[in-house]
Write a sequence for this structure.
């Protein structure tokens, strides 16, 4: 008997499940017992500041001029371990004779568009840690001690795969100068420079490229002076950066909320939350920092990154820094695009922490994303605007 009733119950259970799947109950928002509330918080302080931009994390090495920027030097360091083994350059150097070397850079363009000449130099009397791509910039570039020119070259089409390349040949004599007789002054760091002015800009893949066309150094070895080349090893770049000379500052760089990656322009925006606390069981839906482009006729899309800053900001005066002094919590980063000249940055997670008292409100950093054309800048209205001043709009729900 118990088994009979169990079977009936089991059958009715599955019938009810199938019935729910075939006829789902649709619940509309208007039937939910939630009240939505909207608040606007004033932006009370904004300030621009400038830092030396980070070009070392880009996938491109630049040469030439563009939008007032000049780039005539790129620094490149090569790994001392070959690509296809864990053998070091120094191991081969001690057991074999180095015949020559070749340094190659691949152009982004598949068309040979310039007969521009380039020079190659190295850094004498340095260890293999010549520069840091996170620190090298136009201001400290003059501190580097450079060798005389060890090779010159022009762009060419590679006969093996028709790609456009820049290749430098280094003879055995210059290889000996670079590595020396002691590991103490051994380095594989070089500078590539333009021999004269370039109209327009040329772009090459850097060590950060995902294409696999990063700069390479091939070294050709032989057993003795009378031998032909025995074999070759390839060494990839691991650090590189273009030294970029920036154009002069303009009045608009400090007048509005101005952002530009290559110019190093960033902004701080302070929102007065007036001790806002989210009600019990309240659900924060949005906390949008709203900015409006100065050029409202622009249809171009600009991507902006923003984060809460971890320490008090200087909102009184425009400052220039070598390194960005405002640390951030990258887990609270938010990214947004301008749409029809308007930018909405949702800082919901940050406001939730502030409203709980677990985060101090020091303001927000706003900066241009590296996914933009890094040489382009954009500006948003600041507090002096009559109608399009910045504001934060918050929407939350209460059960």
């Amino acid at each position: 008997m118990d088994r009979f009733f169990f079977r009936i119950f089991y059958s009715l259970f599955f019938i009810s499940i199938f019935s729910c799947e075939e006829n789902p109950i649709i619940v509309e928002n208007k039937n939910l017992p939630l009240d939505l509330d909207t608040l606007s918080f004033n932006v009370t302080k904004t300030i621009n500041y400038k830092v030396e931009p980070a070009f070392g994390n880009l996938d491109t090495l630049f040469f030439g001029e563009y939008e007032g920027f000049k780039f005539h030097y790129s620094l490149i360091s090569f790994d001392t371990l070959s690509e296809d083994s864990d053998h070091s350059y120094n191991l081969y150097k001690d057991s074999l004779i180095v015949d020559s070397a070749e340094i190659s850079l691949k152009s982004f363009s598949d068309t040979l568009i310039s007969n521009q000449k380039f020079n190659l130099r190295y850094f004498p009397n340095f260890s293999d840690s010549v520069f840091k791509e996170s620190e090298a910039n136009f201001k400290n570039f003059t501190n580097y001690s450079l060798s005389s020119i060890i090779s010159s070259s022009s762009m060419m089409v590679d006969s093996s795969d028709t790609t456009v390349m820049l290749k430098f040949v280094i003879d055995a004599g210059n290889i000996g100068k670079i590595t020396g007789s002691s590991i103490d002054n051994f380095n594989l760091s070089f500078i590539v420079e333009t021999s004269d002015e370039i109209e327009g800009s040329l772009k090459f893949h850097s060590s950060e490229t995902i294409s696999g066309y990063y700069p390479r150094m091939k070294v050709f070895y032989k057993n003795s002076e009378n031998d032909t080349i025995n074999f070759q090893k390839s060494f990839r770049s691991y650090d590189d950066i273009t030294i970029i000379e920036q154009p002069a500052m303009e009045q608009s760089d400090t007048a509005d909320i101005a952002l530009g990656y290559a110019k190093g322009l960033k902004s701080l925006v302070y929102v007065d939350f007036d001790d806002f606390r989210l009600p019990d069981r309240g659900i924060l839906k949005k906390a949008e920092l709203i900015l409006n482009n100065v050029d409202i006729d622009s249809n171009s899309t600009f991507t902006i990154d923003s984060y809460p800053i971890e320490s008090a900001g200087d909102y009184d005066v425009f400052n220039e820094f070598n390194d960005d002094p405002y640390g951030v919590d990258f887990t609270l980063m938010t990214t947004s695009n301008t749409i029809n000249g308007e930018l909405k940055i949702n800082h919901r997670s940050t406001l939730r922490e502030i409203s709980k008292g677990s985060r101090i409100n020091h303001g927000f950093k706003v900066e241009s994303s590296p996914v933009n054309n890094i040489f382009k800048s954009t500006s948003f209205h600041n507090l002096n605007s009559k109608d399009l001043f910045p504001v934060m709009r918050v929407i939350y729900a209460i059960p």
Observations:
- Residues 1-29 have pLDDT under 50 and may be disordered.
- The helical segments are 2-22, 89-95, 138-141, 172-179, 252-255, 348-356.
- Residues 60-245 form one domain.
